[in-house]
Amino acid sequence: MPKRVMIVDDNEYVRLSVEIICESVELELASAASGEECLRQLEAGFSGVILMDIMMPEMDGWDTIRQIVARGLYPGNVIVMLTGMGEPDAKMDGVQEYVTDYLTKPFGPDQLIESLQYYLSLLQGGGDGDE
Amino acid sequence: MNTEENRRILLIDDAPAIHEDFRKILEPTRPGGELAELEAALFGAPAPGAWASFELHSAYQGEEGFALVQAAVAARSPFAMAFVDMRMPPGWDGVETVEHLWQADPELQVVICTAYSDYSWEEVLQRLDVGDRLLILKKPFDAIEVRQLASALTAKWNMTRQAAQKLAELEAAVESRTHELNRANQKLQLDIVERERAEQQTRDAYQRISDILEFLPDATFVVDENRRVIAWNRAIEVMTGVPKGEILGQGEHAYALPFYGVRRPILIDLLNETREVQERLYHGITRNGRTLCAEAKVEFADGAHYLWSAASPLCDLNGNQVGGIQTLRDITEARRAEQERSRLEAQLQRSRTVKALTVQLGHDLKTPLTPLFALLPLIRSKVTEPGLARMLDICQDCVSQVQGLTDKALELVRLSGKGMPQEFKRVGLAGAADLSRANCAPLLAARGVACLNSIDPGLAVRGVEEELVLLFDNLLSNAARFAAQNGTVRITAVVEGEAVRVSVQDDGIGLDPDHEKLIFDEFFKADQARHDLNTQGLGLAICKSIVLNHKGKIWAESPGLGLGSTIHFTLPPWETAEPTP
To answer: Has this prediction a pTM greater than 0.80?
Structure first.
């Protein structure tokens, strides 16, 4: 069964928590500690729901999306941003259209599972995430 | 004046023999003759050349004599005198001839020679304007008579001519002098007028300068070269309380007294001092051209004042210093405003730092909260042992508490950071309250609190709906928490003047009067709330930020502890801005 969800976050505990929750519902998770790693996995063939942290060192969430789009890796993926607070960010201009939803940190296991099921349904429906 | 004497004599007589006689008498070419001897015997020796000094001309008729006189006058060589015979047929007689001669030459001295009279002398005198120009010589005459007449009358002619010339010269001199005097007089008159005008202008200019000085808004005084006060304007009277009557004419640094209480040098005394001396008395003194500027702190009756001052020398047209002028401006208010501005800027800077720290802390907390939030429920679901389960519940509550605190802190920062004017829209007040009532329903239900929304459904305000719902959320969750068990929360709104006043009233624990203002401060909690783990103490601070963003006021009222409390706030009504679309 191919992995259909990727967590992109520089914090190991956040990645592990998401992994544990996914395991609890037998959902296999790809894990990336940086924007570059996310891009590598996409280039290696990953396709699915990408949970993307915004604040990361080197390449932040917005720049990672820019690269995804620039390298033609966007189709077939749903991008969900993990945010501390839904406040506007000057860097999001121009890439917002590629973001399907925002998930506010911290989130409980039930909330995450519910959300993931919804995003996965968007993929199964053949949608590419655009609203 | 012609210095050469005129000895020219004209003889007019129809008898040639007479001419011969006269020539012998008046032109004696043979000195030492009989006549000369006789004369010498009578008058002593004559002056050498005296005999040769007459120049005798002859005419034998009146008309001829007249022509000679005319010619002589024309040649500017007139005759001094004429001897005229009375009877000279066939031409003019003596009187007529004389009349003509005087027409030609009024100065001519005349002797009429006659042996007898056809005219009475009275008649002659009537016909002629004789004056003193006519003598009569009766024939037969002596030689000496003729000579003496000739001598006397030529001398008289010359003297008359000289006198006339002298008179003419005198008259010319007088006229010239008079002219000069007139010119001098005219010039003097002009000078006087000019001077009066200049004096008037000077007086006017002085008055103008005095008036300008008097009504200058800045306190100003002027000193002369001896540093005695010669002007003290109204503004400085007001500033110092010293009327000009008390200080004008005073020297010895009297002008320092109102400012420093002692006679000491002030700015105006430092105009010609060295930089060192200036700096010693006034720190930070500046020089602009010949003007000195400085700031000083002085004590007046009502306290400390900051004065900004400028002093300048006053010079005459030659550049000599003849005094000085100093102006003073009370900059106390500006200075205090500046201090207040600095204080506020520092406060703002601190506030920005706090905000930045809060935002950073908030975001940093979110990251470790995420695994806790994600994993604790999973662990709890696997635990069945009651003691362990209780401990995990406590951990879960604490994590929720930290999360709530973080959210509210970030929200408060976000709201209070809104310095920009927001776009206000029409917000139905009752609807916003209802949305919030729904949001808080679980909390209200938990304590059996009833919430009554009595706001007129048609009442609208200008605002940001999302913020107003958040405002009600905070107030209702507070009310739900502090209302009496199974109590009531009432939401009402009235239009008061140009504002809508909204009130949220509960029947709960009430407020200590001392806390009525403090409750809007960040992290303030009344004692009982400090033990309540479900509140962050930021709710009312957020409410305050939202109301301030809407240019309203928020305040609390309570009859006292245990008697319930009411939070009031005002919002701008929609009607005052523009017609409802």
So the answer is: no
